[in-house]
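Researcher: Final request for today, and then I'll write up notes for the group meeting. The sequence and the SMILES for flavin-adenine dinucleotide follow.
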Amino acid sequence: MTAPGDRLVDYDALVVGAGPAGSATAAALARQGHRVIVIDRDDVPGTKPCGELVTPRAVAALGHCGIDESALSRFHRVSHIRLTTATRSTSTRWPSHDDHPGHGYVAARSELDELLVAEAVARGATVLRGHEATAPIVDRGFVRGAHVIGSGDPFEIRARFTVVADGANSRFGRALGTYREPTWPLAVAHRAIFPSALHDAAEAELVIDLSDRSGTPISGFGWLFPRGDGTVNVGVMIMSTSPSFRVINPAHLLDAFVADQRTRWHLADEPIEPAAGGRIPLGNSVGPIAGPTYLVVGDAAGAANPLTGAGIEYAVETGMLAGGVLAEALRSDSATALQRYPQLLADRYGSYYQVGRLLDRALGRPAVGRRVAAFASSRPAFAGPVVRLAGNQLRSRYPGATEFAYRIARACTLVAPDH
Ligand SMILES: Cc1cc2nc3c(=O)[nH]c(=O)nc-3n(C[C@H](O)[C@H](O)[C@H](O)COP(=O)(O)OP(=O)(O)OC[C@H]3O[C@@H](n4cnc5c(N)ncnc54)[C@H](O)[C@@H]3O)c2cc1C
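Model: Predicted protein-flavin-adenine dinucleotide complex:
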């Protein structure tokens, strides 16, 4: 390690971004004794606008990452999901699953991200906040870290491997040549947090019959997630398969949604902070996700669920998979292990995400979207399977109606074009 002013350092891995994906990668690697540094451009964790729903699958993923349920108990627990349209509403428990609990949480992102960072630090990772990676260091064709700017002069962080965990816009990933498959579905979402007397409801509600100003159905949903602290997270998610996707302004749609729900949910007149949102690349739509000395994780890899836009669990899961692969490469002193990472993701998500893309396209057709919304919100016996499928909680043991429907959809992907 030679360093003018201690600024040039050598690590086993540099992780760019301390969101759930970056912290999970760092925790997995540091746990195995490797020297990891994580940098994040923000001074404080969890500034990302989010619906903050930690699904049962996410609870399980966080547990595997070292954050057990006792740490999550500070957040507001939700045991049910309510699906609502203009004329119907039904509530269902989260589906039962061998590997996931029967509940989720609504977790303030600042606190959730802080928990994950603390886990990485507890395992031995170094975390530098207020430091932005401005460009990769490329040495004879291999990525060897990043040029970094903090409060002082720019400097370099050098590492054997680099992990791209810089979120949905992923400028660092783009500098390495990643791109999003333009014909695959994408979501945009916008949220605000309002004081509400219903802040400690045990249900998370999804309103599944949004429409645009002309009354044409929008593929997506509105949400109301109680935070248990006097406030409710309210938001809208719009899939790019919606007919009017290009002309819908998510901020205006959120305003209209809040106005519709104000009385039902006792929403205060003003949010506690300005509304904000962003894009969510879906269904592993970004690639390449592995290079000779780097891997791409979480939103930077477009890892979020194509049916719901939920990305926390996939950020944590892909981070841990990447951490495992990098640990193997460091242990064996061979970078070839990195090339297994795309296959690991394909094995875990490939079929489900392909079905998700197919269903996104089908639901983007107003007639189909309307019928599915009416069906799902009509009774718990229908809502449960819909939530199971959309939440990627299919059972491998004791398959039921949802798994049967999924197999039919999967068979359809063999003949339907994937674009
Ligand atoms: C409005 C909205 C609502 C959502 N609601 C939910 C929900 O309810 N449940 C759910 O599961 N998912 C939800 N998602 C998706 C979820 O937020 C993301 O999938 C998740 O945050 C991805 O985690 P990540 O670590 O990959 O990226 P991020 O959480 O975006 O973290 C990336 C980090 O990288 C840092 N960074 C970026 N560039 C640089 C750089 N050059 N140098 C250093 N640091 C950098 C950023 O500061 C950030 O901290 C929502 C998304 C949006 C937009």
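Model: The two ends are 48 Å apart (CA to CA). Residues 4-78+99-182+283-350 form a domain with the FAD/NAD(P)-binding domain fold (CATH 3.50.50.60).
Researcher: Thanks, that's everything.
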